[in-house]
Amino acid sequence: MARVTCTCGEKLSNHEIPNDIQLKVYTDREWEAIFNCENIQPWMIPAPKYDVWRCPMCKKLYVYDNNKEKPIIVYKIEKSE
Questions:
Q1: Is 34 buried (19+), middle (13-18) or exposed (0-12) by CB count in 10 A?
Q2: Which residue in 15, 30, 74, 78 has its CB near the most CB atoms, within 10 A?
Q3: pTM higher than 0.90
Q4: What is the pLDDT of the chain when averaged over all its residues?
Q5: CA 37, 42, 19, 10 torsion: positive or negative?
């Protein structure tokens, strides 16, 4: 995954490192498995199971399974009344 166009029209890319588009999100179980090791180095931390991208314009979240090209879940901000 390198480029996506949000439904709002904003172009999203993870080419720049670091960036504000791609989020590192771990489940509690993933996090526990990582830190239950006796000695862990930063380079030993595995990538999370899901790849999450956030649009900086509309704040919509796209959740990708690392094996799939299209998002498996898309979240959009609800307007509060």
A1: middle
A2: 30
A3: no
A4: 87
A5: negative
